[in-house]
Amino acid sequence: MKKEVDNILDTIVHPETGLSIAASGIVESVALSDERIAVTLLFKRRRDPFTKSLTKQLTAALTREFPHMADRIHIEIKEGEPHAAGQPAKADGAARVGKIIAIASGKGGVGKSTVASNLAVSLAATGYRVGLLDADIYGPSQPKMFGVEDFVPAADMSGSHEMIVPAEVHGVKLMSVGFFISPDDALMWRGPMATGALKQLIHQTRWGELDFLLIDMPPGTGDVHLTILSELKIDGAVIVSTPQEVALADVRRGIAMFRSEKVNVPVLGIVENMAWFTPAELPENRYYIFGRGGATALAAEEGIEILGEIPLIQSVMEGADTGVPGALPGGTAEVYYREAARKIVDKLG
Known about the structure:
This protein is of the alpha/beta class and 349 residues long.
């Protein structure tokens, strides 16, 4: 497939340069899989007069070559400086990733990172090839949750590009900014530093062939979120919340961000974390210490699904501190996360 796509990129001529769009340096990245063809074109101005005509030509050519993929061809237009003529596009370690899922929360403290790590483990235990990118720049916690705080990523050359080799734990390929900085340094990063590092991790991590790449997003909404959404084609977002009303108010803002016209990412549903507490000595009892039914009501109001209700389990919290996710086979939370993971897979089809 790659050869055919490259040939197409070499035959579509940019009217202004008289060269193909590949030789003109506007092809930033190409992502190919059995599920989609995604091409990102880079123009100095998003409203460049040639964007529509070139997009139309490229879509038509790809459709003729791959008619069975007609409804899965995505052409993205980005604003930026094109590469020098004839210079190849930058390395893209995510080019062979199937589905990309953002794990987000409206506010901090709801257990988003715990949910992200356990969903990744559940998908891997089911037999899928899974990666997890810890994009929570200001509070990277995945290295600790997977017990690899001392991991030092190696660099490996891929052609003329240097790629970063991720950690592999419990069947999950893991990359985190926490591998490169101390926790104290993360809090001091300014916007451009954070987004620049994140772009490097997105494009220079050697993910290889993956069925799913989960992104552990920072809490809230901001520059880092917009960077991720502009650099990757997100297939769906999972919102993590607790039953508390104050958390649900922030969930609405998160849903609105993903549904906005500029972002337009499908919200797959809500995972309600800390839904209830059951003490080990009273396994039949449920105590709704953070409230009850709030996330269900919000999901119905927003027209989305509750993907899972995860109870407050002491062993899960202890596992997050010791690098043993509770969703591992035989773990106390396995059944809850396995069901949530199944629903996510079903929704992505």
